[in-house]
Amino acid sequence: MSKTLKVCPIQTGIFHPGDDLVEFILRSVDPSLWREKTILAITSKIVSIAENRFESLEKIDKKSLIRREADHDLGEIGHGVSLTIKHGVMLPAAGIDESNSENGDYILYPLDPYASTEKLRTALRQRLGIQDLGILLTDSRTGPLRMGVTGVALAVAGFHPLRNMIGQEDIFGRPLKMTKINLADSLAAAAVLMMGEANERCPLAILTETPVDFTDAPQIKEWQVDMQDDMYLPLYKHLLK
To answer: The CATH number of the domain where 162 resides is what?
Structure first.
């Protein structure tokens, strides 16, 4: 793995409800940055805005909205935060966000992140004439026993999110038995670090020299773990409803 990852955050104008997402991206990214084997990281928030995924604060309280939106509501944990599972990711509040909402509404996750990501990839490939183009849909979350947030991938399109290292040898010639590299979340963490969390206005990033294999059929099922097979299930099994 000799490639040197490059992450170029893209500062943009404000993406407003009703704006065309593809045109916004093409207008924001310098044309010289587009090339074969490029990955576009994009925050899930502007995809949600493009899909009109809002809920008025006046129509529903947040706890009720969390229960409605969560695939699994694990209940309230420390600091009044509700822990949930949404789209195969464990995170607070089912991804519902109030920050950077132009009208002050709750912003929800896309209904189908993978469909949204693939649709965006198809449209950009047609406009740019690029064959090997990846899309990485990102958000941020906290982790157990750590302060602060890191980036996480909600969905990918155009590249394999996982690298299976089982059978390859370590430095002493012993075959690896369990190692798999989570490329998608690793790239999301790097991208979100550079994109920022506050008023940086960098909802996009261009990633090049990435250690991924591009494909039209990502191995999503191999990347995601069924809850019953999750090694951390004993920590939250009693909370599942």
So the answer is: 3.30.1330.100
Query: Which tokens sit at 121?
Result: 């990839």
Q: Which amino acid is at 11?
A: Q
User: CB of 62 within 8 A of CB of 106?
Assistant: yes
Q: Are 208 and 3 in contact (CB under 8 A)?
A: no
Q: What's the rounded Cα separation, in Å, for the pair 156 and 117?
A: 6
Q: What is the pLDDT of residues 197-216, one digit of tens each?
A: 777 889 999 999 999 999 99
How many other CB atoms sit within 10 Å of the CB of residue 67? 13
User: Quick one: the chain helix, strand, coil %, rounded to 5?
Assistant: 30, 25, 40
- Give the pLDDT confidence of 121-136 residue by residue, as tens digits: 999 999 999 999 999 9
Between CA 50 and CA 171 the distance in angstroms is 48
Q: Residue 8 half-sphere exposure, CB side, CA atoms within 13 Å?
A: 13
Pairing between β-strand 82-86 and β-strand 149-157 as defined by DSSP bridges:
unpaired
pTM of the model: 0.92
Number of domains comprising the chain: 1
Q: Around 234, how many Cα atoms within 13 Å sit in the side-chain half-sphere?
A: 1
Provide Rg for the chain, Cα atoms: 18
Q: Domain containing 37: what range?
A: 6-51+111-230
How many Å separate Cα 172 from the centre of its chain? 36
